[in-house]
Structure prediction request, 455 residues.
Amino acid sequence: MSTGCIILAGGAGKRMKSEKPKVLCEVLKKPMLGWVLDCAKEFGFDKIGVVSGHKCEMTEKFLSENYEDISTYYQDEQKGTGDAVSRAAELIKSVDRVCVLCGDAPFMDADTLKKALELHEKTNAGVTVISAELENPFGYGRIIRDSSGKFTAIREQKDCSPEEAKICEINSGAYWFSAKELLNALPKITNKNASGEYYLTDCVEIIGNAEAYKSENPDITYGANTRMDLYALNEKARADVFARLMSEGVSFIALDGIIIGKDVKIGADTLVLPNTIILGKTVIGNNCEIGANSCINDCVIGDNVVLDNVKATSSVVENDVKIGPFAQLRPGTIIRKGVKIGDFVEIKNSDIGEKTAVAHLTYLGDSNVGRGVNFGCGCVTANYDGINKYRTEIGDDAFIGCNTNLIAPVKIGKNATTAAGSTITKDVPENSLAVERGHARIIENWEKNFLRKKK
Ligand code: UD1
Ligand code: CA
Prediction:
């Protein structure tokens, strides 16, 4: 039995007051559409399609940069969810079962989809709607049942009678369809309703043979139409991430200002301190101290690492490293085991060897640095001549004196030393000392002579 998934992402979401389509509005710095796609990927559909419309180029850019094997369909005018699904007819024709999801309901999960599919198969239904009971059902489509309790229709808020509006069981906006039944039903949907839209929900009455899988977890239905809704989703997602991490052994003294993305993994006994933001696909090991005031994005961090007031992006930090306070790792940086990086150090696109120390006020860009190297205060790699960038290579156990400028491309051999204040323009062989600075001139009695002349 092959399965396909259609994610509806065409709406404008005017109430967000955004230049972006609504599905790209973010929860924990990840577009809502990304959350829904992760759920679909986890379920393991044979095919996944996204229907975009409003500002589709932005939606398609997000898809191509972040996901593989997603078909896209285009809805030129936002005429309703029924019209949107019909745009993906090609996908529907190619599978046996079709799951439709809303791109603006980020908390749907693969387990719920599996259980709903089991009911769908067991009952041999034409359509199975995933429903939930909400304390405040306002705005959602209501699940209408007949006197025997059989599910017969979905009524949108605007079309509800006062009695129907009291129903608390709502449509999550996620459904399983028999592909054949869906293809038959789509052309029969009309726009004769309060919104003048083609409602996908009309399929329930058209197909007739409908089931509702009522989820125990109302979270799966939460969507966002306004910034306030989005804020509520962020708060909930943030609390869920903390709960997961604490159950996995991560410590927090206070949660103030801490934001951790949903895909972040952190090992046991690691302590995260306030005002720390950890995002993307970051993985952090055991027994680390991260923060305060650190921003870590798409990094892999080992065990026993201290990051104090650090900003790190797309970098790797191995075990037993201490960085900070006030340091930055820019993309493409690898910090090997046992390295120490101190205050006001910036490292970019460089590999820093084991047990090397970069203690203060230093910029290393496009550099390969060996093991056990010591940088004095205020060293700079001049890696850019205004047109091209060049690499600096430094061998094991080299000693780079304070205020050394290394004019790339340049190589410093193993165990070589550069004298403080040198601007190194030539390669330095192993075990040698390089001095590139002006000679000292001492002018005796200078002050007295100078003052006498002035008189
Ligand atoms: C829809 C359901 C409602 C359900 C709710 C759950 C219908 C008619 N109603 O209402 O029963 O309780 O979801 O959240 O389906 N979209 C398009 N093209 C369009 C219209 C919408 O792609 O022409 C997309 C939107 O981008 C969105 C999704 O479909 O991701 C749902 O549309 P939305 O307008 O938010 O539907 P609701 O009014 O929330
Ligand atoms: Ca919605």
Observations:
- The two ends are 104 Å apart (CA to CA).
